[in-house]
Amino acid sequence: MTRPPFIDQLLAAQAAHNSMLCVGLDPEPAKFPVHLRGKADAIYEFCAAIVDATADLAIAFKPQIAYFHANRAEAQLERLIAHIREAAPNVPVILDAKRGDIGSTAEQYAKEAFERYGADAVTLSPFMGFDSVQPYLKYPGKGAFLLCRTSNPGGSDLQAQRLSDVPNQPKVFEHIAKLAQGSWNTNGQLGLVVGATYPQELERVREIAPQVPLLIPGIGAQGGDIEATVKAAWRPDAPIVVSSSRAILYASAGADFADAARAEAQRTRAALSLAK
Predict the structure, then answer these.
(1) Is the dihedral of CA 253, 254, 258, 259 positive or negative?
(2) Is residue 55 helix, strand or coil?
(3) What average pLDDT does the segment 74-97 reach?
(4) Do residues 117 and 94 touch, judged by C-beta distance below 8 A?
(5) Which residue of 1, 60, 139, 247 has the smallest Cβ count within 10 Å?
(6) 196-219 burial string, b = 16+ CB within 10 Å, else e?
(7) What's the pLDDT at 222?
């Protein structure tokens, strides 16, 4: 069955769940409850339980592909995304892969994301230019989030630099935002990744790109402020996807981990809503 365009899915989940919360799925087996450790399908069981506990609270689920690849758990990722389709059919899946290659290699990465795993959107690095983005936009209705102003301190090494020494030239992250809002957005499904740890830059990105969805990591364990984030970025017709991973996944190390994850997700969703 053909799924609606990615941004339509986000808007529908936002309305149905009164949510901006994206649940990041970054499984670390060493942090799992004791009863799951050592099981062959522990990653799937852990993440599926989180999905079941938060399915009615999330605007999106965001599995980080490296955690699955590092643990030889690609098959478990496929199974997990299939489970999300059953447990939360109206919640889109963002595959956090941060791919950034070009040509036939980019085509294979796009095939992996959208055909093998069946994701609704993927994260990309735009450093190599439009050539590295275009193969993903050939998939009708599929989304792509471009790294723009990331939450890590080292992002300033490149993203905060100006394009030239000529006065008033835009910074790199501002240029990326302009491209995503404009000429690069050929399928109408582009978004931007902007960290909650830089609310002023987040507000600037929203000024430049008022219509694209924003994927916002950095709250929770990374210390981004929820109120500042929402005030800087929220628009009723351009969804923000505020991601929390560790704070939800590891809210408890015991057998009650899924219940604790739900409670933390409820708390975060409520805080986001109050900040509007």
Answers:
(1) negative
(2) coil
(3) 98
(4) no
(5) 1
(6) bbbbebbebbbebbeebbbbbbbb
(7) 66
Average pLDDT for 83-108: 97
Answer for the pair 201, 149: CB distance below 8 angstroms, yes or no. yes
pLDDT at position 155 is 83
What pLDDT, in 10s, does the model give residues 15-72?
999 999 999 999 999 999 999 988 999 999 999 999 999 999 999 999 999 999 999 9
Asked, for residue 39, whether it belongs to a domain, the answer is yes
Mean pLDDT of 261-273: 97
User: What total of structural domains would you count in the chain?
Assistant: 1
Confirm whether 31 is a catalytic residue: no
Among candidate residues 98, 111, 178, 231, the one labeled active-site is 98
In a domain, 123, yes or no: yes
Reported in sequence order, the residue ranges of the chain that DSSP labels E, i.e. its strands, are 21-25, 60-63, 94-99, 121-124, 143-149, 190-194, 214-216, 240-244
Q: Would you give the DSSP letter of residue 5?
A: P
In DSSP notation, 105-127 reads HHHHHHHIIIIIS--SEEEE--T
Q: Give the amino acid at 243.
A: S
- pLDDT > 80? residue 115: yes
The Cα–Cα gap between 102 and 47 comes to 31
**CATH code for the domain in which residue 217 is found:** 3.20.20.70
Whether the CB-CB separation of 109 and 65 falls below 8 Å is answered with: no
Give the tens place of pLDDT for each residue, 2-16: 899 999 999 999 999
In this structure, what are the phi and psi dihedrals at residue 267, rounded to the nearest 5 degrees?
A: -65, -45
**C-alpha distance from residue 123 to each of 87, 95, 260, 261, 266 (Å):** 23, 7, 28, 24, 25
Range of the domain at 205: 6-274
Tell me the whole-structure pTM to 2 decimals. 0.95
